[in-house]
Write a structure and sequence with these properties.
alpha/beta, 5 helices
Amino acid sequence: MTLELEEIRGQENTLETSDRMHCAGKALEELLVSAKKQDYLTVGVYESAKVMNVDPDNVAFCVLATDEEYECDIALQIHFTLIQAFCFDNYINVVRVNDIERLADLVGTDETGEPKDAHCILVTSPGADSWKDPALDKLHLFCEESRSAYDWVPTISLPER
């Protein structure tokens, strides 16, 4: 069996993409944990929309989460479309994550002990240069590379626990 050059390149690209995805997943987890400690997270679709409306310059990153249960939720999909458009207009990187339960675990619970609505998570950064995180830099690079491959809202898988 011989492999054509195109097949070898395709295999290399698949491995490279897999590595990029794994690194991006780790970076996202690190970013969310770090931002939570700093109180730089806004969790929830409506809460995020309020922050974006009032102070878009302090939004550093956006995570949209869904799973099969919510794929047919038209209202949620409309909110996602509007949030994505807002992010694109304001040069905010945005990614999707398909494991909403894992995201909810990372961002914690509300005052009543219930899991927060993790469908939309914003990482905020009060002040232009007050908070820099290496994981955020990795995610910005991942999003930039994804856009160069015409993947405008890349999907990231979080590492297994």
